[in-house]
Structure formats: C-alpha cells, structure tokens
Amino acid sequence: MTLLDRALRIGGAGAARRSGVVAIVYGVHATFALALAWPIASLVADPVLGHPRGDRVLFEPGGLFLTEAIRIMRAPLESVAEGMSFGILVGLYLGLLPLGALLHALGTEEKLSAGALATAAGRFLGSLSLLLGCSLVVGGVACALPLVIRGLLETKIRSAFGDRGGDLVGVGFHLIALGVAWLVGVVHDLARAALVARGLSALQAAQAATEALRAFPAEALGGWALRALSALLLVTIAARATTHIGVDTMPRLAVVALMHQAVAITLVFLRADWLALAMRLVGWSYRRDL
Amino acid sequence: MLTTLRRLGEASVGVALGTLAWRLGPAPSAETFEPSNAAHATDEVRSVEEPLREHAVDVVDYDLHAVLDVPQHTVHGDGSIVWRNASNVAVRELWVHLYLNAFKNERSLFLRAPVASGRGTQPVADWGYIDVHRFAAREMEGVDLWANADKRSPGDTEDETDIRVPLPREVKPGETLTIDVAWDAKMPSIVERTGYWEDFYLIAQWFPKLARLEPTGEWRHFPFYHLTEFYSDFGTYDVTIDVPAGMLVGATGIRVSSSSEKGREIVRYHQADVHDFAWTAWSSFRERNAVVDGVRIRCLYPPGYDAVAEREIAMASFGLGYFGERYGRYPYSVLTIVHPPRAATEAGGMEYPTLITTGGAWYDPPFSHDVETVTIHEFGHQYFYGLVATDEQTWPFLDEGLNSFAEADSLAARFGAGSAFDFLGLRIGLDVIYRGMSAGTVHDEPVAQPAQAFAGGADYAQLVYGRTATILDTFSRVYGHEVVTAALGRYARRYRFEHPTFAQFIATMREVLGDRPTKNFETALLDKGWVDYLVANAASMRDEPWAGVFDREGKRETVLPGTPSGSTWQGWALVVRRGTLHFPVDIELWGADGSVQIAHWDGEGDFTRVPYRGSSELRRVIVDPGAKVTVDQDLLNNALGLETKTPPWRTIERATYAAELALECLLP
Question: Which of A26, A203, B197, B661 is the most exposed, having the fewest neighbouring CB atoms within 10 Å of its CB?
Fold first, then answer.
C-alpha cells in the first residue's frame, strides 16, 4: 500500500464516520445556495411564467427567451449580483461555523451531541476567520505575482514565441498562479486542521501546517488533487447526463434535481474526506517532531 | 477571558483582511398578407429562376505593378488604367479615391470622426498615405493631369481621400481613356483592414482608384468616412507583385505566374469581373489548400493555427454549396482566406473580391463557432458586396445587413439551434444574438441610411447588421423561410455583376412578398419601424344568466348574481399591438383543462379582443406562441397567466445547483 493509498483510505474512513455532520454541512451549503439562487431565478424566470410552457422556454434550444429575459432584466440582475457579492463575503465567514463543527467532529473519536458541535462551531470562529483572511490576502498576492510578470513580458513573449507559443507561455504563467493558489489552499486547510486538533493559535497552526506539508508532501498534495479531480469528473459526468435527461417534464426535473443534489453532497463528502486526512497528517507530523 | 478576547481579536482581523481582499477583487461591471399567398409566391419564384450572368460589363481595367519595400513599409506602384465612359453623358472630370490618405494625419475625415466604437478604432501608430507621381491620359497628349487635380476632398479643407481630376476635354459616352499612373503607397500600421505589423502586410486601398460613374453621368464619389465601405465599377485587374524572397503572397484572383530573381519573388495575379484588388504578404504564413466544386480554396494563416485553418476551409466549402444553391453559383475559380496574426487583428473580418480575411484565436473552442461565423460572414460578402455590388456608402444594410441574415441562416443550417454557441446543453443561435444586439437601438436611427449618418459604431453595427438580419428573420418565420430566401435569391441572381439600388431591392422583394409585407419591410428599414405585441388583459367567468328582475311570459322572475346555469365558461382576451409594424399572429387561449383555442389576428389595428368560450376557466393567453415575430420589442409580455404563479422550479433548480458548485469552491 502506497502512502497515497493510505492517505485516501484514512480520509475516506474519517468522513464516513461523521456522515451526520457531513449531511449537516451539506444542508447549510444547500440552504445558502438556495437563498442566493432564488432571487436571481425569480428575476429571470417570473416574467415568463405566464407562458404555457412556463420557465421551460428559458431552456429551449436557441436561447431566444433566455437572452430576452437577461436583456430585459439586466439592470436589476446587475444590482442583485452586486448586492450578493457582500452576502457571499458574509457567507464565507459564516461558513466557518459548520466547518469548525466538522473539523471538531473529525478530530474527535467519541460520540458528539448537538450542543458540543454548536460549541465547537463558535469556539473556533475567531481563529478560523483570521486564517481565512490571511489566506485570502496571501493567496491573492501570490497568485497575482506570476500574472503581473506575464503582463509585463507579454510583448516580448509574443514576439519571441508567436501567437500560439505566447499563449502557451501565458497558460504556463496561469498554471503557476493556480499552483500557488493550490499550495496556499492546502496549507490553509492543514492549518485549520492543526488549529482545531491541537488548539493552536492561527500563527502556530500555520507553522504546524507548513511542517506537515514538508513532512508529507505526497500525501497532502496528492490527496487533495485526487479528490479535486474526482469532484471535477463527477460534475462533468453529471452535466452530460442531466443535459441528456432535460427538464421538459416535472419527473425529469425531479430526476435532474436529485442527481444534482447527489453531486452536491458528494462534493461535501470529498471535502470532509480531505479534511479528515489533513487532521491525520498534522497529527503524524506533530508526533514525528516529538 | 483572555482567550475569548484573543478569539474576538483574531476574528475581527480576519474579517478585515477578507473584506480587503474582496474589495480589491474586480468590481461588478456597471454596464393583409395570407400565408397561402406566400406559398404561391414560393412556387412562382422556383419556377421563374433568374438566369445568371456569366460576366460583368467591363468598365475599368487596372494593369498594375507593385514593389513592396519592407524597410520603408511602402508599395511603389506604376501601371495603367483603362477606363471607359459607360454613362450616357460626356464628362469633363474624373474622380479618384485615395483612401490610404485616411490614415495620413489626424485631420482626415476618417480619423477626426467621433466614432467611439466599431471598426477602425485602433490608433494609428505609423501614418499611411499615397503620393501620386503620374496620372497621364494617353488620349490627351500624355499630359500629367495630376498637376491640376484638386488637393482636397470637396467641401473639406483637410481630407485628401476624394480627389477631382479636371480633364482638358470632354470624354464622350463610350470613349476610352488609358491613364498611365505611378505612385507610392506608404502603408500605415494596421488599421481598418489595411497596413502592416512587423513584416505582415494586408494591402488594401493601395492604388489610385477611379470612382464609379453612374449611367446618368453622376460620379458616385465620396471621401473615406469612418464607417463607410466602398463602391466601384467592375473590370479586370492584372497585378504583378514584387516582394522580398521568403514572403508568401495572397491576392485577389488567380496566380498566373511566379518567378524569383535577385532575392525577390515576383507573382502575377489576374482576375476579371471584380471591382477591387487587395493582397497580403508575410514571411511567416502557413498555407493550406482544398478544391471544392472546382473552386480552389487557399488558406493563409499564422503558425500554430492549423486547426483553425481547417475549420475555415470547411466552412467556406459549406458556404460554396449553401450560398451557391440559394444565390447562384460562385463564379470565380479561387477563394483566398487570410487569417491575420493576432497583433494584426484589425486586418481580420474583411472582404475583398475572391479574398477574405478572418480572425479568432488558435484555441477557439469548436463549440463557440466564432471562427465559422467570421468565415461564413466574409464569404457571404462575395455575394452581397462582391457580385451584387451595391453602394456600400449610401446603403450599408444592402451588403452588411442582407449578408448578416444569410450568414445566420447558413450557420443555422450547419449547426442547428446552437449556431453561435453549443456547450453542455446551452445552445444559443446567432439569430438570437442579432435580435438581442439590435433591440436596444431600434428607436435611435433608421436602418437604411448612409454609413456616415449613423451616430456611432455601436448604432451602425446593431442596426445595419443586427436589425436587418432580425427583420429578415421575422419575415422568414412569418411568411416562410423559403419565401424570403427565394426573394433574396431572385435579387442576388438578377443583379449579379450589377449595382442595384435600394429601390431595385425593394421592387424585387415586392415581387415575391407582395405589397403589404413589403410596405412593412420599408417601414422597418426607413422609419425605425417597430412592434410590440402583448396580452394586456384577460378574464373568464362561469356561463351565468344575466342577473336582475325580468318579466318573461307574464311572470316576473328574479335571477340572483352568481346563479350557475351550466358547465361552460366564457371570457375574453385583450391583445394589443404597439408600434408601426403589422404582422399576422396567432393567439392561443388555454383552458384550465388543457384545451387550447387558437385565434388568428391579421395584426391590423391597435388591439383585438378575442372571445373565449370553453368547458373550463381561461388560464393563459399567449400572442405569437411560436415567437415568429422576432422583431417584437418585448417577448416577455406576450403571455399572460391568470392563475396563481408557481415558483419557476426549473430555473431555481439550475440556479441553486450552480450556486452550490460555486460555493463548494468558495466556502471554507
């Protein structure tokens, strides 16, 4: 069994053990998504509800009614979207509450009460918030750097490599930025795990995360990447399948909705699976240092 | 306590940092015709197919020699122009277009035009101009006429693109002049589909070109306005091009010879029955060839664009068949497709006789059809501009507008409902995009007006391209696709190798469509015609006897309100037509039991009240249920539901799932 296999099994086992908490996190995410989506959906679709085919017309080939609805509702849609960007930021921080509960559950062997989960959610909010803020700033700056360099060298790159070569070099810079974001994301998650598992401060947790990544790079990066690729594959397969099924009738719509929610809960499970692994990795790293 | 304070402190710092990152992110952007008549018309059109002219009437022949001086970005030209007075009037002057002077300085009409968007907005980094050194008619003792030529365009003290050359004597109808010319054309940096970038050249508007003399003896000359295109006589072009060795050349017409000497490549091109000549040269061109129905398609493209070149050739091949069937066969034996390098993007998306330029990135995904769209659009111009050589300055919609309809029509035939975009179930048609882009500018300006009369590039594009295509699309849906393509086909065949006017176009449409629809057509084009059908109101009630006190057959009877007398329902729907256009439409009345009653309205008058009688309550009313009238200003008010609205479950489901996916990436 390779280290990677081991990492996958550990994560899977951890998340499966806490399927109830995973379901709660999914419920929170789904509720928040519905709260965001409903007003936009109503803005776009309410004007066509008088049509005999209802909002089905929005999904008809050619996109006549979809583009018309967006054209006519463009101004309110822009206002709503702008307003929602603040809501998403708030959601980003409120989302730390279920995350704190999930991490606590994943790091605890014994059975947990609802009260214990709620307490854990509140207890880690401050530190997790600090980590999130730092991660956003560090990630943003680190990602921007390769892109800025690319922008400065654009003309030289293009005259040296031509259109296609220049684009491919540009893709390389984007991949570097993406890689940096990935690295920051992995360290961020490891720090969260360390923070909850060992009760560290945000700074100490970040240090512990860096040490864990240094000690187990294949398990950490590989474990994260495998889950991300699995999620991407799942979403793509679901998109093809639901496109094929369509939403012409209510039963079809119900099937599509079930498939979509199955994908959504699986994504949450994969995330929990990764976090369970992250907790284990910071634990191993800590014990090794001892 | 200390721990709590620390946590609160950490939380507030974290929130502050997150808010900062959020604010630093990108800000949201602010920004009475019966169908039976139509069927009859189709049969008639099919049975009376216009014969195709084999050749144009030859009016002006250019025999030119061009030497490309790469370090100076200059073309040294000389040769002769044989021009015949094809009008019925003797003339004492010639008009010469020197359109390269549009890029000579910032005081040209072109560059000082306040056009904020559209083509030709790329700043000129290196000026372009044309210096004529000799312009001598052999029949007039070989005297250089250029010395007496006006220096400026008429009525303008600064523009040098439209030049009058007085003649020492009259040139009678039918008389021919042979004019020896010599000139230097300094090419600008790429702007408005001509110029250079590094050693890539698209060389257009590069020689002294005679304006067209109408049969009435009126010269149709005009300066190079910002949004204007071109207009000139048919003739034969024989052009020898001399470029440094290693450059690949593409040009209007057929390559009849090529040779190499002293580090130079010398190629000669010849083409009859065309009205312009453009060429390109680049040391980095790659080349692909195909032969389709006897036409050699030659694609010149930058390195790394092989897949795009294949798509362009495939689309042009399709166009040869599709356009050939509807508008007459392509009469030339060659079609050259030029895909400029990205730095010369503004050289793309342009048409010249037998030569078109395209555009798009090498990685353009096949589902977006951008490459195919620009290719078929420019190919379509071989018909609506090339063969049917209308005055593009006076009536730009006759080439760009008709061609945009033909382009969307052919793309729909090839790619179906997702003719513009087709990915993971989301299919958007180009006709829908044209509709969307034109809907916002309908009330601004007429469609059919001279190019320079438009307020700006946006109005020009949205009305000339989008609105014309949408008007024709509506006619196609309402009166029949075959009827409209037959009308356009008759027009394209009848006026092949000619210069039809707006009146001749309308007359051809009238022959096929009939008087009433053509009047509608004229209103849409000339008078900012618009229409909005809507269901204003509707109601139904159970079939009840009239309430009140009635003396019937010697008895007094009191009928109380709400007394049911049967199981039928009666009601009405009020359908309104706003605007100045009239189209026949269907109106559907849906009962609660799923029954549908269809009424037909000829679209005349401001409104119609449609009666309803059915076995259930009236639930919904919709006017134009098939959305045939795509020029309808607001399609969302075409339907009215009388029941309590249920949430739009499909849209909510899709939007929620999309939000869930986004949140899985964003949320911790």
Answer: A203
